[in-house]
Amino acid sequence: MSGYADTNVLVSTDWVKANLGRPGIRLVEVDVDTKAFDAGHIKGAVGFNWQTQLQDQVRRDIPTKAEFERLLSQAGVSNADTVILYGDNNNWFAAYAFWLFKLYGHKDVRLMNGGRAKWLAEDDKELTVEPTRVTPTTYSASEPDLSLRALVADVLAAVKTRSANLVDVRSPDEFSGKVIAPPGMTETAQRAGHIPGARSVPWASAVQKDGTFKSIDELREIYLKGAAVDPARPTIAYCRIGERSSHTWFVLRYLLGLKDVKNYDGSWTEYGSMVGVPIER
Amino acid sequence: MDHASRVYESILEMLPSEQNPSPLVRLNRLTPEGSELWAKLEWMNPFGSVKDRAASALIEAMERDGRLAPGRSIVEPTSGNTGLSLAAIAAVKGYGMRAVVPNKVPLEKKALLKLAGAELDVINDNLCPSPGMGDGAIGMARTHAKAQPDRYVMPNQYENRANVEAHIRTTGPEIWRQTQGKITHLFTSLGTCGTVTGCATFLKQQNPRVKIIAVQPSEGHDVPGIRNKNELHVTKLYDESLIDEVIEIDFERAYTGALELARHEGLLAGPSSGLIFEGARVVASREPVGMGVMIFCDNIFKYMSSMLKHLPALKEGTEA
């Protein structure tokens, strides 16, 4: 893992196995498939449901500070804990949860490199169906750090002034406007295409076959050279609903070490439904 | 057991073997001139598909090495046919069965799995183009096997050599005997690749000049149960060195091919057979095929919802 800008945001599956049950370490599983956790999880892990627990249930928004505090308190997470996030689909929603943890000021949060699939593929790694016994805590979150989050006003300003790198992490067909969303997805938009000036770098460009992140040199080649992301300017990553872009946000902010990277969680389902905004195809 | 009278003590005695081969039937109207094409009707196996061979071999292998015993259950990722064969054999032998299926599998197959007593997990695969390890059904099956090792055993048709050996032991010798060694071309699809690897291994040992031709659907296809080469990362049974040619066919022709087979040959073959036939037709139009054998994996009945989706004209005139 050496060479990444921040070496304290990623742990290996072997590290997780070696540290199972160690006090002060909290495992949290977040999957796209919300049935996966109950079918089997790493011993001691708690599961968060992205649909019911990681977004506001009334407004379209992230959970409020109070909701986030309640969730973490009930999950037995303390402010001083090292939180290890992992999940299916190459850590899509684990990365989204990572973004929320950072947004609400958690000090030490890390992703398990390769996610659930890598753990599953390794013969020496075990899973359990036993529920994790949790002692509730009183978790205290910070005010949300909006320097990590792009709202639509930020995006429109960036389009107007062409002042930011816009990175579209969706599939090539979504970027080109051939489809509005991948087949079968319920969250969609009114229009197809992409935000003017955006570069297409599908999220999967960042990972290797085994699900772990590519080397720092490969990532530099892909994002800084290939997609001409200028590290001196602010960067906004977006996708369809903000989870795949959390994955790329993680890569840009922590592995490549860009100073100013925002995740646009409204993403295409918001932008592609607004009246009168410019769209490119 | 007497295959001549076809009287059996158990359905399992009907499983295919050199003494009880699945039928080989000649195509008489759709074959390009100067060629001979024969269809091996795998739907005549007791549980309705080519997968009866792999499923019985996988179960026997797990019984032999002690991983499967009464009171335990099988868990397996499947697009339907393997699951159905496994569930039926498990029912006969008194094992439990849990099938993990991708959501795109047709409703008929899902309902059939339940009917045969399998517990069903339906997984939303292919959310977004993803590298190597994004296959949800395999991951979920592996999750059950890892999380409850006392309860579940996963045969893993994608990695288990018993899948290949089933075809070295049965399909290959059946074809060799049925064609009296005259087979020149074998046409198959790609999935776990147990069929193609096993048949090719056996047939090339008998005659290295037998051409093995894999027919694959075009990318982004909607043909249940088979794979395009770029979806083969999930299987460890694919051996490129045994395959002489891979022919790609527009996947919609799987459905029109199946329709033609029914209307002109009386063969009620499923879409993967339709695709294999179209591949064989391409080769037979290009060069004389002395004696081509096509593996017709299963019949059409499980795919009526897919047929209606791709051939909407079939719906016309079906209501008063």
List descriptors:
heterodimer, A: 281 residues, alpha/beta, Oxidized Rhodanese, domain 1, 2 domains, 5-stranded parallel β-sheet, 4-stranded parallel β-sheet, globular, B: 320 residues, Rossmann fold, 6-stranded mixed β-sheet, 15% strand
Q: What percentage of the residues of chain B does DSSP assign to strands (E)?
A: 15-25%
Order of the strands making up the biggest sheet of chain A? 1-5-4-2-3
Radius of gyration of chain A equals: 18 Å
Strand content of chain A: 5-15%
Helix content of chain B: 25-40%
CATH topology of the largest domain in chain A: Oxidized Rhodanese, domain 1
Number of strands of chain A: 9
Total discrete domains of chain A: 2
Order of helices and strands of chain B: EEHEHEHEHEHEHEEHHEH
What is the CATH T-level topology of the largest domain in chain B?
A: Rossmann fold
Shape of chain B: globular
Task: State the name of the first-level CATH class of the largest domain in chain A.
Answer: Alpha Beta
From N to C, what is the helix and strand string of chain A?
EHEHEHEHEHHEHEHEHEH
- Anisotropy-based shape of chain A: globular
Q: With helices defined by DSSP (H or I, 4 residues minimum), what is the helix count of chain A?
A: 10
Number of domains of chain B: 2
**CATH superfamily grouping of the largest domain in chain A:** Rhodanese-like domain
Largest sheet of chain B: 6 strands, mixed
Arithmetic mean of pLDDT of chain B: 93
How does CATH name the architecture of the largest domain in chain B? 3-Layer(aba) Sandwich
What is the chains' assembly state? heterodimer
